[in-house]
Design brief:
Layout: H1 2-19, E1 37-38, E2 41-44, E3 50-53, E4 57-58, E5 64-73, E6 77-80, E7 86-88, E8 94-97, E9 99-107, E10 113-116, E11 124-126, E12 133-142, E13 149-153, E14 157-159, E15 162-164, E16 169-174, E17 179-183
Antiparallel strand pairs: 1-17, 2-3, 3-5, 4-5, 5-12, 6-11, 6-14, 7-8, 7-13, 9-10, 9-12, 13-16, 14-15, 16-17
């Protein structure tokens, strides 16, 4: 009986540590004007899972792309509550869904491998067992005609059976750079 209690204690401590999670700011823009160019934004979830959104890239042939990078420590999983990334002007209904161009997974200690080029997200991201962290990278294409300012609304994530909201990333057109950028 005592031996099983010794094994259960670390598990209880691990579970209670997950309950201490406090979500960082759920909206990236810190001012109504959203005037400050931002090189990227990281959002932390429980169990060491994180999401990093990159600034958009304007393509020479036209159009705009950005990437979302999900990092999962070994032994973790995260599920989506919807399989789309919605685009909306602030305080308005979504006007479009970002198109998924590519998705790949790699252990951080391995060479990147293309998992598949698909149009829908996998239901769940899992960490690989032979690396301390696994990176899932999603490349998104935005519609050609974008408003001056828009938000990328992420689906909530399920981690350890609990639902967690994820940050809404904010972007706008910067006249001085002649390009869209992430803003705060």
């Amino acid at each position: 009986m005592r031996r099983s209690a010794l094994f259960a204690l670390p598990l209880l401590l691990l579970v209670s540590a997950c309950d201490d999670y406090t979500a960082p700011s759920l909206y990236q823009a810190t001012t109504p004007e959203c005037k400050t160019w931002t090189e990227g934004s990281r959002f932390e979830l429980p169990r060491g899972i994180s999401i990093y959104a990159t600034p958009p890239v304007t393509l020479q042939a036209g159009g705009t792309e950005l990437a979302l990078i999900f990092t999962l420590p070994v032994g973790t999983q995260a599920s989506f509550t919807r399989l789309s990334f919605l685009l909306a002007e602030p305080h308005k209904e979504p006007f479009a869904t970002a198109k998924i161009l590519t998705i790949y997974q790699r252990g951080m200690s391995q060479k990147a491998e293309i998992v598949d080029v698909i149009e829908q997200l996998p239901i769940m991201f899992s960490a690989v067992g032979n690396s301390k962290e696994t990176q899932w990278r999603i490349r998104l294409q935005l519609p050609r005609q974008m408003p001056q300012r828009f938000d990328l609304s992420m689906p909530d994530m399920l981690v350890g059976g609990k639902r967690y909201p994820v940050r809404t990333f904010t972007y706008r057109y910067f006249d001085e750079r002649k390009a869209y950028g992430m803003c705060s």
